[in-house]
Design brief:
single chain, alpha+beta, Rossmann fold, 19% strand, globular, binds ligand ANZ, binds zinc ion
């Protein structure tokens, strides 16, 4: 037997053993056991695992392992979000085909994952770029098409002039630059495919209430993204007798509208623009077309706009007010037209001041009188309605309540408008002019229009003999052989859709595929999916709090409505793990320095200028020179230490600061566990393993009782830490406490000692799976039989927790004077007797008369005496 802990040897050995013996296989369904689906967000196969991945997957792995030991049948899969731009960029730069580049990265990362001892069922691995997966992504696209939820429309898109591609709004940074190329994004009109997610806006919002296991923060982000707003649509008549419908959340301020603003793209613009104004208006429209939404709606931006030359009539008071156009009004929200109430809306206020338009207050704050001339900001607070006809004297809040309800009732009664709801959520632009994505399974026929590819002809495979120049339109559109096909409907010459799908589609259903990963006939069978889903625990980064989760929820609801699923929400519980941070060194300009270049890390200075450097913890990243490559840590300490450190250092949802000393500390801890178990395994104490089941609490020595209490306290605390909020950090502390109790035990041959050793090895198994497996194999033929990971989770014996003695506090007049060891079972009367007879009481109560005795069982006795 080897007394030295050598992670390199045992880790590779057990990984091979687990793979060979199918220890991590998903059990067959319907064996009666409860199911548990533990899922990590699958990675993009960049080629290298980083510490953020390691943290994410370790957290999920512990959860999966504990559930298995608790007797659940566990699904714990892994796969690859494998389509996307980087593969294409690599093809352009280095001439490697995207498929080859991607598959090589996958192979590399799969090995890295395996070296971490993660208990995945690799038989269920999926890669979204393979035809056996995207076949079904295409099938799902056709489901959406069939349901009327996939449609095409011309849309102004964000155009990246460098990557020559369309970007989603969230791929454009706050300065209007592409998140990848950094190019200034332009606007361009293209015919695009959309998914009608807006049809599910209300459900996506209200069903957030069905997710008590999600962080509040994530639910708030989703709710804000959906952006429900309630208000009214009001119809204004123009002088030309056209109807101009506006959306407002403040119909109660209608009497304060002093002008109207149309989005430059509004369909009535042409009609309402008068001859003298047409040049200015057209120039303005052109300029607006080149600005992104982000530019147009940026807070505090200098307002621009042009008068159309026309007027509208305010329907509630007959006032004639001018119609303007301005780019701060967006065509794709509400009705694309607003009534401007400068006294009470800040954007309108800024606009009115700039163009010298009238301002009319209709809400007076209590005890004040707003004068238009004196105002320097809009008043958005509460007050009393004035100059507002039927609403005069009504209290106005900040946008809800009596005044708003009164205004809507008035509008509806007089046929001037009605209450409505609006969502900020927009339909999802799903098409990309790129090669490395799932082809959209549509054929365009000049006779039949858009024709879905028959499902029997799926998958529409990506051709692999593609040339990448990095210039011009999508490579697919240049492949004549691929593009030109007969129409499935009329056989006439037709053309394939050359756009591919947004990769967010691939990741919106992968969690369903895992339930039936190798099904060649269907995306999944409903039985399997309904058995395994919803996911019991989803773990991933907060950066996916909005889009990925929203799209996955949307897919789930659509597939449910198509009859394929019987649940409403895909992810029952969600854990967003914190970032992995490490120390950085930077100068005042924000330039980062390589630690190896710094002479003295305790007082770091710029090696060239000698100026002192700032030290801070920041997210690990190559550009900050603070990344710690997982492979380095594994080579030095092994996977078990890396896992223990990550779990111990911070609670999973909090940021984690990398610290070499703490890594070292966990390594030493594992060494202590190793030694304790090995010494035991080589001692006579081993024979006591067989006597664990026969332990009688009442027969134990005082020392054995104490050790047993430590053992079962560890079981209780660790189980609670894991079943509650996944407080792995305190669970590891409990493991350390138990290990200390073991090291301090005087009698290392008793059954209670054997029990503590067996328990420690099983409790540590989910955290440090390799060392636990190795140690388990030395624990004799009976308890050490089979894999430790297939053992039952240690059972709590509540009797073992009961203490023999407690510490009783003695107080005189509420003041603590000392403590006393007394039997734990003592009742109130007995406690009082112990206290009275104690030396402390004798001393402090000498010569006094006891008026009252207060006994708090299990805690204290207080004497009131004078
Ligand atoms: C008059 C008014 C008075 C408004 C007031 C606000 C305060 P949310 O809450 O986000 O739904 N609005 C309506 N459509 C718009 C569009 N297409 N582009 C830009 N702004 C638009 O915001 C709704 C409010 O934003 C609406 O209510 C409208 O201004 C403006 F004291 O109408 B309000
Ligand atoms: Zn046709």
């Amino acid at each position: 037997m080897e007394l030295r802990y050598s992670p390199a040897e045992i880790e590779a050995k057990w990984q091979a053993y687990w793979a060979k013996n199918g220890v991590d296989k998903t059990p067959d369904a319907d064996d009666g056991a409860k199911k548990f689906y533990a899922l990590s967000m699958f990675p993009y196969p960049s080629g290298d695992l980083h510490m953020g991945h390691v943290r994410n997957y370790t957290i999920t792995d512990v959860i999966a392992r504990v559930r298995r030991m608790q007797g659940y049948r566990v699904l714990h899969p892994m796969g690859w979000d494998a389509f996307g731009l980087p593969a294409e960029n690599a093809a352009i730069k280095r001439g490697v085909p995207p498929a080859e580049w991607t598959l090589k990265n996958i192979a590399q990362m799969r090995e890295q994952l395996k070296s971490l001892g993660l208990s995945y069922d690799w038989d269920r691995e999926v890669a979204t770029c393979l035809p056996n997966y995207y076949h079904w992504t295409q099938w799902i696209f056709l489901q959406f098409f069939d349901a009327g939820l996939a449609y095409q429309k011309e849309a102004a898109v964000n155009w990246d002039p460098i990557d020559q591609t369309v970007l989603a709004n969230e791929q454009v940074d706050s300065e209007g630059r592409s998140w990848r190329s950094g190019a200034k994004v332009e606007r361009k009109l293209l015919r695009q495919w959309f998914f009608k997610i807006t049809a599910y806006a209300e459900q996506l919002l209200t069903d957030l209430d069905k997710l008590p296991g999600w962080p509040e923060r994530v639910k708030t982000m989703q709710a804000n993204w959906i952006g429900k707003s309630t208000g009214a649509q009001v119809t204004f008549k123009t002088e030309s007798d056209d109807e101009l419908v506006i959306y407002t959340t403040r119909p109660d301020t209608l009497w304060g509208a002093t002008f109207m603003v149309l989005s430059p793209e509004h369909p009535l613009m042409e009609k309402l623009t008068t001859k003298p104004q047409s040049k200015a208006v057209e120039a303005y429209q052109e300029a607006a077309a080149n600005l992104s939404t982000i530019d147009r709606t940026a807070e505090g931006r200098e307002k621009t706009g042009v008068w159309t030359g026309s007027y509208a009539i305010n329907p509630v008071n007959g006032e004639k007010i001018p119609i303007w156009t301005a780019d701060y009004v967006m065509m794709d929200y509400g009705t694309g037209a607003i009534m401007a109430v400068p006294a009470h809306d800040q954007r309108d206020f800024a606009f009115a001041r700039k163009f010298e338009l009238p301002i009319k207050a209709v809400i007076q704050p209590e005890g004040e009188s707003l004068g238009a001339e004196a105002m320097d900001v809009a008043y958005a607070g509460a007050g009393v309605m004035v100059h507002s006809g039927p609403l005069d004297g009504v209290m106005a809040g900040k946008g809800e309540g009596e005044s708003v309800e009164g205004a809507i009732a008035y509008l509806e009664k007089n046929n001037l408008g009605q209450g409505t709801t609006n969502y900020r959520l927009r339909d999802w632009l799903v098409s990309r002019q790129r090669y490395w994505g799932a082809p959209i399974p549509i054929i365009h026929c000049s006779h039949c229009g858009t024709v879905p590819v028959p499902t029997a002809d799926l998958p529409v495979k990506l051709p692999d003999d593609v040339e990448f120049t990095g210039k011009g339109a999508s490579p697919l559109s240049k492949m004549a052989d691929w593009v030109n096909v007969p129409c499935p409907n009329c056989q006439a010459d037709a053309k394939r859709e050359t756009d591919t799908m947004d990769t967010f589609l691939d990741s919106s259903w992968y969690f369903l595929r895992y339930a039936d990963a190798n099904n060649p006939e269907a995306a999944f069978t409903p039985d399997r999916v309904n058995d395994w889903l919803p996911v019991d625990q989803y773990v991933g980064g907060i950066e996916h709090a909005i889009l990925h989760l929203l799209y996955s929820r949307f897919f789930t609801k659509v597939l449910r409505d198509r009859g394929f699923l019987n649940f409403d929400e895909p992810f029952q519980r969600l854990l967003t793990q914190g970032m992995v941070q490490a120390i950085t060194y930077k100068n005042t300009e924000g330039q980062f320095f390589v630690p190896a270049d710094i002479a003295d890390l305790d007082s770091p200075t710029d090696p060239e200028t000698g100026d002192a450097l700032q030290v801070s913890y920041e997210k690990m990243s190559k550009s900050k020179f603070n990344g710690v490559p997982p492979a380095e840590v594994l080579a030095k300490y092994g996977a078990d230490t890396a896992r223990m450190f990550i779990l111990f250092k911070s609670p999973p949802e909090k940021d984690l600061e990398w610290d070499d000393a703490d890594v070292e500390g966990q390594y030493r801890f594992l060494n202590r566990v190793w030694r304790a178990v090995m010494e035991f395994a080589q001692s006579d104490g081993v024979s006591a393993l067989k006597a664990i089941d026969g332990i009688q609490q009442s027969d134990l020595s005082k020392a054995d009782k104490a050790l047993r209490r430590a053992t079962h306290t560890a079981i209780k605390e660790i189980t609670e830490d894991i079943e509650g909020d996944y407080q792995f950090n305190t669970a590891v502390s409990e493991l350390m406490k138990l290990s200390n109790a073991i090291n301090e035990a005087a009698d290392k041959t008793s059954p209670a000692f054997a029990e503590s050793i067996c328990t420690l090895v099983r409790l540590i198994a989910p955290f440090a799976p390799h060392i636990a497996e190795e140690l388990w194999s030395y624990l004799g033929s009976d308890p050490g039989e089979g894999s430790v990971h297939q053992q039952p989770w240690p059972q709590l014996d509540p009797a073992a927790l009961v203490a023999d003695e407690i510490t009783l506090v003695i107080q005189i007049m509420g003041k603590t004077r000392g403590t006393l060891q007394v039997p734990a079972g003592a009742d109130k009367a007995a406690l009082e007797t112990y206290a009275r007879e104690s030396e402390i009481a004798q001393r402090y109560l000498a010569g006094k008369e006891i008026k009252k005795v207060i006994v708090v069982p299990g805690k204290l006795v207080n004497f009131v005496a004078v």
